[in-house]
């Protein structure tokens, strides 16, 4: 019988590429990870690991085993959901993750509703960048999370996770109102008109940084980034102060400060609710999804799905 915990280590290795990275993610020593993978290899009866330079590569048999491991883990999630559904009332902890603009706008009303309707449920909210969400949900640090991508920078699907679409937003170009007006009052690509401007972008490595680079490169230039800021309130304050221009999605641009003009773009930001495969029917996760969808609709946004 294959051990599920060792299957998790094999899955992590396929995703992270090195024994050291798996050890760091799981708070093990590298030797402990190697030992457990060796045991799994003996249990499987076929070679699972090979070398590719300094990295450890999965064999074809290991890739097949990881694919089956995802199905096993999803079945365990469904079993956990069935047990939770058999209990009277919701209890335990629901760990929710969200990116800052959603945590500030969509989550407060949802948390109030959950606390009112399910007083036995302990709620935990964590604010984090969408690039960090898959690992947090996969590793059970979160049960439900709001994650976004952009139509021009789509996220790769994760076989361990499932998702429900929630929201599709317009992305705006935020520019100072006292800056030079565009030569064309309705340009086909407003980003192209700010080739010489300083830009305000997210921290390198974040999705917001990546979409700024993509939008400017699509307009034919590399942006001159003057400031890095991950909070859109800070971004809009910097734009109002004449420090540059920035991309701001609709959810974060509700009430821009004086001195900011918002130019709608063709870019779209897409938000989804994500959770572990097999977990959609868990009563706490289902309650969280319903509460977030209601709060989104109450704010006047068209809810997808």
UniProtKB/TrEMBL annotation:
InterPro entries, per database record: LysR_HTH_N, LysR_subst-bd, WH-like_DNA-bd_sf, WH_DNA-bd_sf
Domain HTH lysR-type intervals: 2-59
Key word Transcription regulation present: yes
UniProt keyword terms in alphabetical order: DNA-binding, Transcription, Transcription regulation
PANTHER family, A to Z: LYSR SUBSTRATE-BINDING (PTHR30346:SF29), TRANSCRIPTIONAL DUAL REGULATOR HCAR-RELATED (PTHR30346)
Similarity-based family: Belongs to the LysR transcriptional regulatory family.
Protein name, entry field: LysR family transcriptional regulator
